[in-house]
User: Fold these one by one.
Assistant:
Number 1:
Amino acid sequence: MSEETTIFDVMPGQLMSVSDVTKELSKMWSVSPGPAHEAPSEFRASQMNLILHFGLKTSLDEAKERFNTAISFAQRYPCRIIVLCPMGREHSDRLLEGKLFAQCYVGTSIRQMCCCEALILGYPTRVAGFLSNQVSIWLENDLPTYHWFNRIPSERVTGMHMNFIKRCRRVLFDSDVEQENFADIEWPRPGVAVDLAYARILPIRQSLGQFFSRFDTDKLAGGLKTVKTRYSKGREGEAVNLLKWTQECLEACAKDAKVELKAEFTSEECGDAHSLEIEWTYEDSRRFLWTHEKKGLDACVTADFGTGEIKTPMQVGLLDAPAALAEALFFSN
């Protein structure tokens, strides 16, 4: 990030004082369009608050990409988006600044119109500890709140931002971009934190789960030696989550088959041959290998669980960003 331009500077919206943001928002939705048309408020049925919280290490391009993801999500799941944009020490003399972004999107008919809103706060890091006070004013208090951290150091989350978490139904992070393991944070409630990388592999988990369901649990878990995921650069989060999901599945298989699971579970970067791989080895000739190409939807299973070799192509991909956001917020365990 350059010294001249901050995340707040590149966010869209009308610049105004922080105190005027909610006033202007209220005026905007109450505008009367005339007797022949409906007011924009008819198409603004917010279901939730979504706080998008950037850290200083967020690049300008990444910030814009995350913002666009949130807006795309809001077109399907109407919500109030609150964007928190830090300004570093070189901007310590700046005060809180506000922007208001609002836009209506029309589908194939006027009845498919959806109105989105984003309240954007620029703040110097010296006041980060007081953010919850300002955010509480901007929230729609009768709606559930979700919080999406992007490149916020874990010590700042635990030391300064736990007040946010107490009011949130879920907290999101992305292990592909975070340098620390957010899963290790002592969250106030079990299951409150969800990894977007785990949400993105939903189609993969579904496809592999359907494949494994064809085999007896003792053939899957019995005599298993190693389970290893391999990943290309930028896919570590997906690989680690795929490994964890596989381990949980195999533990359930071992329990059902009344066998001991002794396998070693590991993950490693493998270069650019494939986007993701997972391989199982056994004490005998059984084996399993799943590979996913780096581009497109092509994947392949090569396996032998004691009944002969199976080679099965698959068409499966990762969820796109708005769909992964919805999966993480509403459905992931």
Number 2:
Amino acid sequence: MSRITTITNETANPEQKALLDAIQAQLGMVPNFLKVFANSPAALRAFLGLHGIANEGSLDPQTRERIALALAQQNSCEYCLSAHTAIGKKAGLTGDEISANRAGSSQDAKAAIAVKLARSIAEHTGEVTTAELIEAREAGYSDAEIVEIITHVGMNVLTNMIGKASRLEIDFPKVALKIAA
């Protein structure tokens, strides 16, 4: 049971209900983390706006999911790991690729650099080295794409914190975290 109220159609005020209905119409479901965000319609609108705009960037959907998987594992968010495993599979990621992403890499050489950079950004709260930025540029990432990687790190850290703080009920096929040896 979530430690923060999950807003449902039955408990929603008119503003919350309108937001949940819009999500339902777009996704065919309302994931539990968005039901927690719905406690604050302003926070939900902010997240949905950032998410929608960030997904208009030039990073491909697979790389965005690779980053989400790497950070969910790194930040120990089982909810997000489960959600992004399902979403990643729909985006075309294989089981082996998902395993590589969770370990902080990728089977795709260019994407591996993005995942590595994303993990470093999260781990060091943005204090990445010049060498890491040069490596990303040499892999073919423009400064615009590097900014998009940073943006996706921020969004994923936010959702990881929502998932962990609220201890959401997982409404995707459950995927267990890998515990470091």
Number 3:
Amino acid sequence: MDDTSTFKRPAKLWNRHFELLWLGQLVSQTGQRAFALAMLFFLKETTGSASLMGLMVMLSTLPGVLLGPLGGTFADNFSRKKIIVFGDLINGFFVLSLGLLMWFVFYARGQMACTYPPNDFTLFVFTRIEPYADAIMIGWLFIVAAAGAIIFAFFTPACTAAVPDIVPDNKLDAANSLNQFAIFISLFIGQGLGGLLYTITGASALFLINAFTYFFASGAESFIKIPQVIPEQHKQGSVAFKAFISDTREGLYYVWNRKGMRILFLVAALLYLFIAPMALLLPFYVEDYLKQDAAWYGYLLMSLGVGSVIGYVIAGSITTRGRTQSNLTIGSLLAAAISLGFIGIVQIPSVVLVVIFLVGLTAGVFMVKATTVLQLAASSEIRGRVFGLLGTLTSALAPLGMGIGGVIADLANKNIPLIYAVCGLMVLVLSIAMAFSREARDFLMLGAEK
């Protein structure tokens, strides 16, 4: 066991261990979203290079695609608590070093004279440093971004794998609902508040604030206890590396040899592939087909987000197992497919607002229920590898869907409704195939294939 051999599994959802893990994830992911926004705006202001911005996005995405399975193996072979705590701690030191580097460079150049806001009657006055960058600063920014992406490739499967061990089985749906809600809130706060702080303080101060969000999260997470059987590590050097690769391969075989799990994996990943073009092409859809301005783009995103949150709440409030669980999971995917395809048919803004709300709601229910089934189906010893692989598939297929969607949109002369209808049809085919698969239905119904 880990250092939790006397750990007694909590009987309620809101226990100290889950509360601290949830709070830590919320704070660290909020900081990560703010950092992602700030680094892109900083690059745009200082270099004006779309190529550098694209490279930065790639460095922030690619490690999750490549290292997901290895991160999952790491989470199964080493202390998940330590991965979580030290992941946030190391991220904090990286971002802190970047903020301090910028601060000292700006101070040396005498660029700390501009204040915001310029009103003498304001309660607070901030120093807003004018954007400037040299090769060292840009290079270190890329290193910090890549390091953060690598850390999250290990951090995320460790967190997901830990949840079933610190909450009761009958509260797992609610726990996953709350985790999805935390991701939504971190996106909303991180980008909204991050954009405001960037405008007021500039990049260096925002990075310093971001560093302390990681330190706070790491401190909170250090009080968690996560029960875990950790394999003894007797191997060294190349033998240990081969064993690590063998463990990773075992995770791939584990998923592939369970047909029901394999089908759910592919469906969940392909859902990202077919929904991604919707997000990419939404601005074109709003202006060219709905004949609305950018405000309606915000309304639709808000409707999608609110629908998702309500979907998380519904899925978390209803603890289902057996046939009911199977029907609800498949039914929510069917409803998401129909709603997505319906967007390509109607072009009345108020109706689209309702339909996109339904897309968020039904997709939210599906993702929470699918996550719960996978957590129950995979034993603790293999769970990290299962979710590491799932993270790799979703991280790879979402940007791929955006890329393919952009190319198809150009070839189809921006016929966005047709693309939406086709994407909805493809998700419908996936959901019908899963509904007719006995293995998939049985897997969703049991949810405890160990």
Number 4:
Amino acid sequence: MDLASRIGWTLLSFFVALNYGFVINGIIRKVMARIQGRFGPPVWQPYIDLGKMAFQRNSISHGIMFWLGPVFRAVGGVGLYLLMPVVMGDPRLYAFTDMGDLLLMMYFMFFGSLGMALGAGEGGHPHSPIGISRGLSQMTAYELPFILAVVALVAQTRSFDVTAIMAAQQGGVLHWNLFANPLSSIAAFIALLGMNMYAPFNIVGAPTEIPVGPMTEYHNAYISFMMVGRSAFAIAKTVLFMNLFLGGAHSVIEAVVKIFAIYFWTVFVGAVFMRFRAEQSVRFFLRWPAALGVAGLALSLWR
């Protein structure tokens, strides 16, 4: 496939994935509202919010890095998505997989969060350091079990190439890493709860506790950047988990179903648990998920 065709298919794939992310966010708001006994907004509410915010302007400025925070967030999600295959055997949906491996993908996962931390630090609000310290502390904690799980998969396949890890899982459901190495998989899926920041790990925005945060500090067009970044990052992370632990996808329909199931695992957990305090969240990730990650790595090395 020539470069022009690859770019075209990649843009089309990302456009579809981004819209799927918006639809999932709309479904989440509806589901959470029903669980709480409310009717909730329509599923297409994220599109309404995006259109409303994208065309508003504000003359207040807090510095260049403050405005680059949402941009970094969006770039992290887009970059992660562009480095992964979406459907096995279809080169049109391989994007730029041959130009990066798991190490580069993990850098992109850090990129958005660190960019938002730098942006918040320049905002000047006295509560910004609270959110930054909470977010970075929790990120460090949940990345430990996730990295241990990734290292275990690399040890199994002797490769940092996602396509090689996907190929090693072919031959049936029992060949998926979810069943071939359940300890590492459980550690990674618990870490995903922290990555998506639903309860009990939504300590950064801390709803009902801190009446400020990105949605009040940022405004107008910058919130639209944050919405794009959140949707892109959510889909990119779930595609990565699908490829690493669920054997990838052989069709677009299979990818849609698996992405939905992986993402809603975090939503349903968040619907039934109360929020942890910051120290509780960090302590949790450094105990059981980290222990499972170490056990999964030992299992991979033993084999």
